Amino acid sequence: RNMIYRERVDSTNILARQTGETGFVDGTVILAEEQTAGKGRLGRVWHSPMGTGINMSLLLRPAIPVSDAAKITLLTGAAVARGLEEITGLKIGIKWPNDLQIQGKKVSGILTEIKADMDQIHYLIVGIGINVNEQDFPEELRETATSLHMEVGRQVSRIETAAVVLNHWEEIYQRFLTQGFTVVREEWKQYAVTLGKEVHVRTINETIHGQALDIDEDGLLLVQDEDHQIHRIMAGDVTLRT
Length: 242
Ligand code: BTN
Prior knowledge:
Bound molecules: biotin
Low-confidence stretches: none
Protein name: Bifunctional ligase/repressor BirA
CATH topology of the largest domain: BirA Bifunctional Protein, domain 2
EC number: 6.3.4.15
Strand content: 25-35%
Shape: globular
Function: Acts both as a biotin--[acetyl-CoA-carboxylase] ligase and a repressor.
Structural class: alpha+beta
Order of helices and strands: EHEEHEEEEHHHEEEEE
Distance between the termini: 47 Å
GO molecular function, one term: biotin--[biotin carboxyl-carrier protein] ligase activity
Binding site for biotin: 11-13, 35, 106
């Protein structure tokens, strides 16, 4: 096992990539107190000021096809959700694919990055950001973001939270590697807040309006549009239709 800790880093995912380019131990955990260029999905910035959140990347070398990488994002979401429920006693929801929410506000996000050649994964990075002890957010996030502290009304131990999340992660990851995605999918669905709802899904090419039906055996989102056509969505932004 290997662990890398930094006070300050541009992004733990970037440090993970640099580490991945050299020899590395499968399962290396990278943690930083502060990120100066924390990365979110779809080119967004992940707010990660000094000492308040968990900024963590897992560096892995799984022997799975590249097309299975999305499943790792989902299993990580389930592991973080379970860990955060255990720590806070609050209900955690997951908005497909990877937004963890408490009462509709985002408390954690996951950014998976992959380096592969043909169908061989060189390394896979699972970046996990958790808002733990923030007591306020910048104006532009105030409506949509929350932290564990803001929800439970007291300081929450980051080290304990990270440990609980990692233990669940390890358990679910091993289960995925040995038994496949079926069990993980059931676990993930217990936290799903988008399924069965009317949604807008914005993908790179189009916006689909319809009902989110399920996730399939590959972790893709199934949405049925107004013409009863079913779309399998690999990546996109889901908003609930109001
Ligand atoms: C998202 O919801 O858009 C994903 C956010 C992922 C943030 C984490 S923090 C640790 C790791 N390093 C990064 O730069 N991003 C991820």
